[in-house]
């Protein structure tokens, strides 16, 4: 029956660690015992060879070998047994050049031929190794036996029982296993501690549940429309979902890099990095209005969420424009009612000529205003914006004037961008001119000029002006000198103006108007199409 694998993370980690520790301990013991066995074999072989050399060096053994035939009571047997007993060897065998034994542990085998071929030793070469003979497996050493003149007259073979070497190895195994068991115990205790800590950190969640949670997390992060950016404690990007990559204009390759190296310097980077604190922080990135919130994690990192409010902001501005036009129409309705009452009174009094003059004057003034705008501003969207803003300005008691230098041809590349720029500047100018700090009758002057393919927009007012110390801050996302009502936020109009100007490769600046007030100047290179060349006919110029 196949053993069941535990389901709990704690049991799985503990079992795996115990198996690893057991395997490592077994391998370590094997790696230690294998060299030890080889070392013991070498020691036994060299010991047998040394005893054989010492025996062959005895001067009387070669003389006794040559003196007579082999005999159990002969001097060779006596010397060999004395050396065997003194050294603890298993046997000391002396043979002549024919391989006949002159000594042996078993006296009955003296006079017989040895079981192994002594040819190499009788040839003058020494030999050592492990071999099996009549006395069993043993570590052997063989050396040639020479007479006084150096001639080989026989050989000496010494053996040490291999069981003695094996017994020595077995005697060392318990100690090795004891140390291995101690290491295994320490490893098991460490494994239990690690497993308990892992169980605590994972809050008892199983491995299958962890995998499911990760899959759900990935699906949720990349499925929601809000952007999510996670940073570690060092400010490096750890996570970017699809919505954040789209809103910030970055890719998945940003993961692992510092945030300051992924995004350019600006308010968006400062807000995400935490250098600007607060909730529902506004920022503009590539013309999109984003609302950012940050939350710190237990590990020292940060998770930031981004919501796209571009469409909502555009709808809000359109609603503001519609509300302004509605207020202007309501004011005009009252004004028209008053004028109708005036005309009716003149007719009742019989002042017909005066009534006709009054009607001509009123209609001529409105017609002159509209004709002046359309004559100087040829783009229909921009001219309609100025006519509508003039009505709003009149309702607020501010005069909206078009500068005599205004000349805008019908060659605007994208009138919607120009409407955004001009509408934001005029709205801010109307707020400034309509404040109580305006010097003299409040007014706003608009100037639109084409310099080649560059469009210059200039909006001036006689309001309180912009102090020199904050002229760069007015273009920052979310910065405003005016207090906003709870449902709406300020500080986005001028930021959008700067982003649009930078998109066209231009710039925006604010200065001081002569006589008091502020002047905003925007330059939009390549915002105008090149003029079409005049076409010629056969008869001349068309």
UniProtKB/TrEMBL annotation:
Q: Name one GO cellular component term.
A: plasma membrane
This chain belongs to which protein, by name? Answer: histidine kinase
Q: InterPro entries from the xrefs?
A: HATPase_C_sf (IPR036890), HATPase_dom (IPR003594), His_kinase_dom (IPR005467), PAS (IPR000014), PAS-like_dom_sf (IPR035965), PAS_fold (IPR013767), sCache_3 (IPR033463), Sensor-like_sf (IPR029151)
Q: Name one GO biological process term.
A: regulation of DNA-templated transcription
Tell me which EC number(s) this protein carries. Answer: 2.7.13.3
Q: What class of enzyme is it?
A: transferase
What sequence ranges are listed for the domain Histidine kinase? 310-528
Q: Which organism is it from?
A: Streptomyces klenkii
One MF annotation (Gene Ontology) recorded for this entry: ATP binding
- CDD domains annotated for this entry? PAS
The protein's matches in Gene3D superfamilies, at most eight in alphabetical order, are given as: Histidine kinase-like ATPase, C-terminal domain, PAS domain
| Signal peptide span | none
In this chain the PAS domain maps to 220-255
Membrane spanning stretches: 176-194
> Which key words tag this protein in UniProt?
ATP-binding, Cell membrane, Kinase, Membrane, Nucleotide-binding, Phosphoprotein, Transferase, Transmembrane, Transmembrane helix, Two-component regulatory system
A Pfam family found in this protein is sCache_3_2
Q: Which PANTHER family match?
A: SENSOR HISTIDINE KINASE DCUS, TWO-COMPONENT HISTIDINE KINASE
Q: What is the annotated localization of this protein?
A: Cell membrane
- Report the superkingdom from the record: Bacteria
């Amino acid at each position: 029956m196949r053993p069941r694998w535990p389901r709990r993370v704690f049991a799985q980690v503990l079992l795996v660690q115990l198996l690893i520790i057991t395997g490592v301990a077994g391998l370590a013991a094997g790696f230690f015992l294998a060299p030890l066995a080889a070392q013991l074999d070498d020691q036994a072989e060299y010991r047998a060879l040394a005893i054989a050399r010492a025996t062959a060096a005895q001067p009387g053994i070669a003389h006794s070998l040559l003196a007579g035939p082999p005999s159990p009571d002969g001097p060779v047997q006596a010397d060999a047994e004395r050396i065997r007993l003194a050294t603890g060897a298993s046997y000391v065998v002396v043979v002549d050049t024919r391989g006949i034994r002159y000594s042996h542990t078993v006296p009955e085998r003296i006079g017989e031929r040895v079981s192994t071929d002594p040819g190499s030793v009788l040839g003058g070469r020494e030999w050592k190794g492990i071999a099996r003979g009549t006395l069993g497996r043993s570590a052997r050493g063989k050396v040639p036996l020479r007479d006084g003149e150096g001639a080989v007259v026989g050989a000496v073979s010494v053996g040490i029982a291999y069981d003695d070497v094996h017994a020595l190895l077995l005697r060392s195994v318990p100690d090795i296993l004891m140390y291995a068991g101690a290491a295994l115990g320490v490893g098991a205790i460490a494994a239990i501690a690690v497993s308990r800590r892992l169980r605590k950190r994972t809050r008892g969640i199983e491995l299958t549940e962890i995998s499911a949670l990760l899959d759900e997390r990935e699906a949720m992060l990349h499925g929601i429309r809000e952007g999510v950016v996670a940073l570690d404690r060092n400010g490096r990007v750890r996570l970017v979902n699809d919505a954040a990559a789209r809103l910030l204009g970055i890719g998945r390759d940003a993961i692992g890099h510092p945030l300051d190296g992924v995004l350019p310097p600006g308010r968006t980077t400062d807000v995400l990095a935490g250098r600007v604190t607060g909730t529902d922080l506004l920022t503009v990135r590539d013309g999109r209005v984003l609302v950012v919130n940050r939350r710190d994690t237990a590990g020292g990192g940060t998770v930031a969420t981004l919501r796209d409010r571009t469409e909502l902001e555009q709808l809000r501005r359109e609603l503001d424009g519609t509300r302004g036009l509605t207020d202007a129409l309501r004011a005009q309705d009252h004004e028209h009612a008053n004028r109708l009452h005036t005309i009716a009174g003149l007719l009742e009094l019989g002042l017909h000529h005066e009534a006709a003059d009054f009607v001509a004057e009123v209609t001529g003034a409105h017609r002159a205003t509209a004709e002046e705008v359309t004559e100087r501003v040829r783009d229909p969207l921009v001219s309609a914006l100025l006519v509508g803003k003039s009505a709003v300005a009149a309702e607020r008691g501010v005069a909206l004037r078009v500068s005599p230098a205004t000349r805008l041809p019908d060659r605007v590349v994208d009138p919607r961008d120009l409407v955004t720029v001009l509408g934001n500047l005029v709205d801010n100018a109307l707020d400034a001119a309509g404040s109580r700090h305006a010097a003299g009758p409040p007014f706003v002057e608009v100037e639109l000029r084409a310099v080649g393919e560059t469009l210059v927009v200039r909006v001036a007012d006689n309001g309180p002006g912009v102090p020199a110390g904050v002229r760069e801050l007015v273009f920052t996302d979310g910065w405003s000198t005016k207090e906003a009502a709870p449902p709406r936020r300020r500080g986005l109009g001028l930021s959008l103006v700067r982003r649009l100007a930078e998109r066209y490769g231009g710039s925006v600046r604010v200065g001081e108007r002569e006589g008091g007030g502020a002047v905003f100047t925007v330059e939009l290179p390549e915002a105008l199409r090149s003029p079409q060349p005049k076409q010629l006919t056969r008869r001349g110029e068309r």
